[in-house]
Amino acid sequence: MIIQGHIVLLTIAYAGLSALLLMVLVHVAIPHWAKLAAILLMGLFDIGIFFGAQGLVGWSSATAVPQRFQLLWSRVVEPNPSRGFPGAVHLWVEALDENNLPSGEPRAFLLPYSSALAGKVVAAQSEIKRGNPQGGRSETFATEGEAAVPDGMNVRAASQGAAPGGDPSGGGLLAPAFLGGQSKSVDLIPMPKPLLPPKEMP
């Protein structure tokens, strides 16, 4: 469903809740002008929800990134202690299916800043500029002819002996726990090749 559809459904949900509250209000012993004012205010509130939600479109989502994705672009915003800003990493990604094919629905995600993640994102961005597509994962990519690495194991860690990416430091509003499962240890690797269906024998 496109984002506009989500906004319409959200508005309908608020309108339904408003209708239920107003049905209760009808049976409350208050002046008629107060009931009319409440109805008008709730109607204006629902309209405001619809137009106000339009301003959310395009903002990076502070939710978990897809398990496998292609990195389309990124932006690293460095921390600013003087303003109390902890920094942020914005990723514009496109989810991949089980055959490593892109979904065709790019989305923007917000990750909490860490120096390790920022370094990986800057390096991946440089590779994209050189014409080398970059992928990302929160589980192992499966490539043709390769055995899958067990869930939770970092691809670079398995191949290079490095520790899984991500800086455990940080906290506050951008802490992974606050973001509902978001992870700082997103791994960025060269874009895996699409898996081709098996050839039929003649």
Topology:
Blueprint: H1 3-26, H2 32-54, E1 68-77, E2 88-95, E3 107-112, H3 115-129, E4 134-137, H4 155-160, E5 187-190
Antiparallel strand pairs: 1-2, 1-4, 2-3, 4-5
DSSP, total strands: 5
The residue ranges in which pLDDT falls below 50 over 5 or more consecutive positions are: 139-181
Biggest β-sheet strands, sense, barrel: 5 strands, antiparallel
Order of helices and strands: HHEEEHEHE
Q: Strand order across the biggest sheet?
A: 3-2-1-4-5
Please count the helical segments.
4
Characterise the protein shown here.
- The protein has 202 residues and is an alpha+beta fold.
- It has two domains: 3-54; 68-190, no CATH class.
- 34% of the residues lie in helices and 16% in strands.
- The protein has four helices and five strands.
- The chain has helices at 3-26, 32-54, 115-129, 155-160, and strands at 68-77, 88-95, 107-112, 134-137, 187-190.
- The protein has a five-stranded antiparallel β-sheet, covered by helices on one side.
- Helix 1 packs antiparallel against helix 2.
- The longest helix has 24 residues, at 3-26.
- The two termini are 41 Å apart.
Features:
elongated, 202 residues, five-stranded antiparallel β-sheet, alpha+beta, 4 helices, 2 domains
